[in-house]
Amino acid sequence: MDYSIETAPLVELQCDCLIVGVYESLQLSHSAIALNKNTNDLIINILKRGDLSGKNGETVLINAIPDSKIERILLVGLGEHKPLSGKDYKKALLAAINSLKKPQIKSIICCLAECDVTDRDWQWKTRQIIEVFNDAVYQFTQLKSDKETESKIEKISIAAPETEHNSVQAGLLQGKAIAEGMTLTKHLGDLPGNLCTPTFLAEQAIALGQTYKNLSVKILEEADMATLGMGALLSVSRGSRQSAKFIILDYQGGANKSKPIVLIGKGLTFDAGGISLKLPPGMDEMKYDMCGGAAVLGTMLAATQMELPLNIIGLIPCSENMPDGDANKPGDILISMSGKTIEVLNTDAEGRLLLCDALTYAERYNPEVVIDLATLTGACLVALGRVPSGLLGNDDVLCNDLTSAGETANDSVWRLPLWEEYQEQLKSNFADLANVGGKDGGTITAACFLSKFAEKFRWAHLDIAGTAWRTGQTKGATGRPVPLLSQYLINRANADNS
Ligand code: BES
Ligand code: MN
Ligand code: ZN
After folding, report:
1. Which CATH number fits the domain that encloses residue 429?
2. Are residues 126 and 195 in the same domain?
3. CATH of the domain at 29
4. Is pLDDT above 80 for 399?
């Protein structure tokens, strides 16, 4: 996709379709006023005929404009004539792009960056346009014989006045970086488990490291993990023919001695449940159990492209979870890298076994903060549905920073309590702790388990079981929480430099 900025007057521009906003009660946006003047009141007449009321998300495509060089105009309803909320802005953008998935439309100019959005500037609006448009035109075609995509759009320009050029340019760079990070994350999530193995993920990481010179990548093999004593992680991998990989990404964009932000992503490339085998319905979707890891790759890619002045470490423990003669058995007791012993009561609670050793490994970086992201519990879907990611952590400042980054990025999180009382549920008769805490509060007890391995630093955990994936007709990976994490990192970079 080619993204650019257009500062010339609208009527002089060449493209297959101009996107302009209209409000309710016959109120036009600036661009719509200009186009209306240039087309003999065409737009106002369409509104007067009642073909568009201006409600947010409505669209009308005008596909022939008499006496004009303009090919097409897409009118997009924005709602009441007042500043939009961030969410309504995204809704209007989505409606616009979804109605332009037509073979004849290859180049578009979007005039929606001029709309007022509460507390948001041109930079944010530009970024949002690129993120939403790129997300909407993405399609996984690699494994289809027919590679045709619904959208034929190749060129997207953002219309802006010359005075806003710098802000729009900054938004364009960030938007492209985040969109590319999301695309990578979605692609890896959509790839099936037979292709997207731990080894494949490691190769993807190595390829990223070869492309970007300030991103270095190292892979730990099972023998290295054994030397480190990663008994919890290795116990999961033992039941699989695929060997485990521990991916380490190191981005040095900040000052030499500044403490790194560590991102840890669950890279479980297929979760059959192990000996505590899952039920068949929907088991195919467990190929997305590596989306935490994929989002770490996507976020590191975005941060690298944005050249953020931060030091960031990405850790991705990768494995499969399969039933096998050598797999974990209920009742088995493992020794984790931290030395804590774990009784495996359910082999399907494997994500925390990978993450606990990765958290212990993170200690060696003396991190500023550690954020882990994982498709960790089905209970998170029960509690929060597919709207926000679950957030739990041991530090209020970090949790608040993530919550506000989520609001800004239109990639929300909702905090759940991590109270001492819940720790009771993880008591084991035979080991330091059990790997499951019964059926109550499953998202919370999973985070309680992790918290025992995150006592030495400020830490937050994102449960993305509900947000990393869309089910139903349009099933596929969403690329979340790449926008949230990218926003958090941008905010950190701005705060450190002010
Ligand atoms: N990967 C699953 C969690 C999951 C479920 C993600 C549904 C996305 C959608 C995880 O490894 C798992 O199996 N968790 C168990 C934990 C239980 C055994 C305590 C679960 O949620 O059932
Ligand atoms: Mn599982
Ligand atoms: Zn899992």
Report:
1. 3.40.630.10
2. no
3. 3.40.220.10
4. yes
pLDDT at 277: 98
Residue 273 inside a domain? The answer is yes
Pocket of ligand 1 contains residue 343 by CB under 6 Å: no
The pLDDT value given to residue 255: 86
Find the catalytic residue in 106, 238, 278, 458. Answer: 278
In a domain, 170, yes or no: no
Atom number, ligand 1, closest to the C-alpha of residue 469: 8
For ligand 1, atom 13, the nearest C-alpha belongs to 348
Q: How many angstroms separate the alpha carbon of residue 482 from the centre of ligand 2? A: 23
Residue 498 pLDDT exceeds 80: no
For 276, phi and psi rounded to 5 degrees?
-80, 65
Count structural domains, the chain: 2
* Number of residues in the chain: 498
Query: What distance in Å separates the CA atoms of residue 358 and residue 288, rounded to the nearest whole number?
Result: 19
Ligand 1 atom nearest to 376, measured from its CA: 3
Same domain, 156 and 191: no
Residues 424 and 350 in one domain: yes
User: Quick one: pLDDT at residue 343?
Assistant: 99
Average pLDDT over residues 419-448: 98
Same domain, 319 and 398: yes
Q: Which ligand is nearest to the CA of 344?
A: 1
| Ligand 1 lined by 271 (C-beta under 6 Å) | yes
Task: Give the pLDDT of residue 496.
Answer: 79
- Count how many Cα atoms sit within 13 Å of the Cα of residue 47 in the half-sphere of its side chain: 23
User: What's the pLDDT score for residue 67?
Assistant: 85
Cβ 461 vs Cβ 375: under 8 Å = no
Residue to mutate, 319, 345, 376, ligand 1, most ligand atoms under 8 Å from C-beta: 376
Pairing of strands 311-321, 261-265: parallel
Q: What domain range includes position 127?
A: 2-160
340-386 pLDDT tens trace: 999 999 999 999 999 999 999 999 999 999 999 999 999 999 999 99
Q: Nearest ligand to the C-alpha of residue 272?
A: 2
Q: Ligand nearest 465 Cα, by number?
A: 1
Tell me if residue 355 falls in helix, strand or coil. helix
Q: Between β-strands 73-77 and 17-22, what pairing exists: parallel, antiparallel or unpaired?
A: parallel
Same domain for 275 and 404?
yes
465 in the same domain as 358:
yes
| 371 plus 288 within the same structural domain | yes
What is the per-residue pLDDT across 112-171, written as a single tens digit (0 to 9) for each?
999 999 999 999 999 999 999 999 999 999 999 999 999 999 999 999 999 999 999 999
pLDDT in tens, 260-272: 999 999 999 999 9
* String of DSSP letters for 436-478: ---STTHHHHHHHHHHTT-TTS-EEEEE-TTTSEE-STT-EE-
Residue 463 Cβ contacting ligand 1 at under 6 Å: no
Residue 352 appears among annotated catalytic residues: yes
497 contacts: CB under 8 Å, gap ≥ 6: 309
